[in-house]
From TrEMBL:
Any Gene Ontology CC annotation: cytosol
Boundaries of every Glutamyl/glutaminyl-tRNA synthetase class Ib catalytic domain copy: 4-103, 106-277
Family membership noted in the UniProt record: Belongs to the class-I aminoacyl-tRNA synthetase family. Glutamate--tRNA ligase type 1 subfamily.
Catalytic activity: tRNA(Glu) + L-glutamate + ATP = L-glutamyl-tRNA(Glu) + AMP + diphosphate
Binding-site list for ATP: 211
GO biological process assignments: glutamyl-tRNA aminoacylation
Signal peptide positions (record): none
Residue interval(s) of motif 'KMSKS' region: 208-212
Annotated localization: Cytoplasm
Quaternary structure, from the entry: Monomer.
Gene name for this UniProt entry: gltX
Superkingdom, natural source: Bacteria
Record protein name field: Glutamate--tRNA ligase
Source organism of this protein record: Candidatus Yonathbacteria bacterium CG_4_10_14_0_8_um_filter_43_17
Length: 447
């Protein structure tokens, strides 16, 4: 098998989910690593449940992730090939027309069954080693409802044979399908592909992973502001590792490092916090211009107008926002909660909020802010940056009590219990606005 060909063969009966992404990724990586071909095959033999919208979702999701395919097929376009193979196997005596008792009045009274040789089938799995099945219990299984309506087990074997698939990488829920498919391969004289059955991805409680555990469709992750690099890095390590402690792995590195031998036997456990950790890392590596565009697009209309009117402020707050989010989707919720308003508008608050912890003397806090005002007033506008501001204030704050000096300063600038440190805030707002807001706080304290 010198020409490696892998395939990802989803059914368009639902959207592309994260578990399927891992199957697609491993198949894609193995093909790319071996200068082979990666096939995307839409298995739409279930005519009633297959939908064009699901097919579009699958293709869209793979394209967004960068898992490009070399060839594309739909089973619904291949009916003539299945029919030819059915006729061929009937001629060989491996398939026969079976007269059936219809389950419901009006249903067909015959199907096409595979004549089971009733043998033990042993195949090599790259994860689990040799696996044996006694196929006797399968009986003469149905491969098609009629000459034009093949079932999954038959269609998939014909497709893999015709397309030259050398390696089948799929979830271990498909292990039980393998004996039937091998029997059909042998009847056709088809070569046996190399099988790798991946362990299931489990929920944190080791149950079946579902949407309630945070496992969404790939396109939903995109809408929530996750990056494809983060999803691929996270998914790659759910069932495989490069043999060391490396966690941050680019797609290019994965191609070099990936191996089927290092796929783990045990089920990987879903961890949404770990996915967010990866995403935060990749957001910080994202080009600044693209980060700004993503954040701006997720601002509510009113805040977007303020950002447009104050581009200098908007540019300065990008690093602050990035430092406090794990996904771009969080930006909208934080903005709606007013977390960014104080960058553009003077905050409003009660004077008691300016007091540090158990301190209860407003005039003392006011006097300390007056001292802060005097210290920063001497800083030249061109050097009004966090380091210079901190240097100017730090000695006094240490002497007078850091909390009782820095808390009222920070609250005067933001009006919120949680916000960036006062030096960063002052630098973002600029000297003029900083002085204006501190003066307002002093007036409120010294009433």
């Amino acid at each position: 098998m010198t020409n490696v060909i892998t395939r990802f063969a989803p059914s368009p009966t639902g959207v592309l989910h994260i578990g399927s992404v891992r199957t697609a990724l491993y198949s894609w990586l193995y093909a790319r690593q071996n200068n082979g071909r990666f096939i995307l095959r839409i298995e739409d033999t279930d005519k009633e449940r297959s939908k064009k919208e699901f097919e579009d979702n699958i293709i869209d999701g793979l394209n967004w992730l960068g898992l490009n395919h070399d060839e594309f097929f739909r089973q619904s376009d291949r009916a003539v090939f299945y029919k030819e193979r059915i006729i061929e196997l009937i001629a060989k005596g491996a398939v026969y027309i079976s007269k059936e008792e219809p389950k419901e009045p009006g249903e067909r009274a015959e199907v096409l069954r595979f004549k089971n040789p009733n043998k033990v089938v042993t195949f090599r799995d790259e994860v689990r080693g040799d696996i044996s099945f006694d196929t006797t219990e399968l009986g003469d299984f149905v491969i098609a409802k009629d000459f034009d309506t093949p079932l999954y087990h038959f269609a998939v074997v014909i497709d893999d044979f015709d397309m030259g698939v050398t390696h089948i990488i799929r979830g271990d829920d498909a292990i039980s399908n393998t004996p039937r498919q091998i029997l059909i391969q042998e009847a056709l004289g088809a070569p046996r592909p190399i099988y790798t059955h991946l362990p299931m991805i489990l929920a944190p409680d080791k149950s079946k992973l579902s949407k309630r555990h945070g496992a969404l469709a790939v396109t939903e992750y995109r809408e929530e502001g996750y990056l494809p690099e983060a999803i691929l890095n996270f998914v790659a390590l759910m069932g495989w590792n490069p043999g060391n402690d490396q966690e941050i792995i680019s797609l290019e590195e994965m191609i070099k490092l990936f191996s089927l031998e290092k796929v783990q036997k045990g089920g990987a456990v879903w961890n949404i916090d770990k996915l967010k950790w990866f995403n935060k890392h990749y957001i910080k590596l994202f080009p600044v211009g693209k980060v700004s565009d993503e954040i701006f697009a997720r601002f509510p209309d009113a805040l977007r107008e303020k950002a447009e009117a104050n581009p200098k402020i908007f540019g300065k707050i990008i690093p602050v926002i990035v430092d406090h989010i794990s996904t771009f989707g969080e930006v909208h919720a934080l903005a709606e909660a007013g977390e960014y308003d104080y960058f553009f508008d003077d905050p409003t608050y009660q004077r008691e909020s300016l007091l540090w912890k158990d301190e209860n003397e407003p005039h003392v806090a006011g006097q300390k802010l007056q001292k802060v005002l005097a210290l920063i007033d001497d800083i030249d506008d061109a050097f009004f940056v966090p380091e210079t501001i901190k240097t100017a204030i730090w000695g006094y704050a240490t002497e007078a009590g850091r909390g009782s000096v820095l808390w009222p300063m920070r609250y005067a600038l933001s009006g919120r219990d949680k916000s960036p440190d006062p030096f960063t805030l002052a630098s973002i707002l600029g000297k003029e606005t900083t002085i204006h807001r501190i003066e307002g706080a002093i007036k409120l304290l010294l009433i």
